[in-house]
Design brief:
229 residues, alpha/beta, Rossmann fold, seven-stranded mixed sheet, 35% helix, binds S-adenosyl-L-homocysteine
Amino acid sequence: MAKKLIILLLLLLPLYSFSQGAHFRDRQMMVKSQLEPRGISHEATLKAMKTVPRHLYVPDEYQRWAYMDRPLPIGYGQTISQPYMVAYMTEIVNPGPNDRVLEIGTGSGYQAAILAEIVDQVFTIEIVPELGKRSKEILQKNYNNVHVKIADGYYGWEEEGPFDAIVVTAAAEYIPPALIKQLKEGGKMIIPVGSPFMVQQLVLVKKEDGQVFSQNLMPVRFVPFTRDD
Ligand code: SAH
């Protein structure tokens, strides 16, 4: 009996470790080939990208493409950004272990999971109820420091602010004033700005000595920032 059990375990073990290892290796490869060569160097960001199982945040039919250098559809006309863009937007706000961070556009929940690995508290807002519910489920299963709200992120999350960093993952025509207000002194916000379905600018906003500075970083293409009405 014991012998049979050992044989069974020996047979199952390689299968198990292969299935775990395959994605583990995919993540290491993703970091080595897509992130490091393009200059991502923030240690905590790289560690989070190596840790979070991106395949669990995309719809089943796209799981095998989860670690490729491309965005993927997540339903409801929305997309999860390519891994590099997630890493770049995370690194640029320089998140630290004691930070409170606001994300607008939860989508799949992947960017929120990356942030949750690095900072103290993540607040994330999604306007599409179905996406909000789906990502809330997976995020709450894996993290106790992520708070998901289904609402129009235009108004931010005033009761929980101000925030050390704000990450906006949908392209707005202009920077919502409430978000600037909810950014802490010394804080950073990253936001794509521009018209829907055109090339937009990824903008870094900093608040220093009560003044707001913004800097265009690169042309990007994001899904539009929509409004409740
Ligand atoms: N960060 C996401 C990217 C999702 S795409 C991820 O890691 O998967 C951008 C998301 O922003 C979409 O899910 C879209 O529904 C959402 N969105 C667009 N306008 C919004 C708004 N006003 N408030 C909150 N979410 C919004």
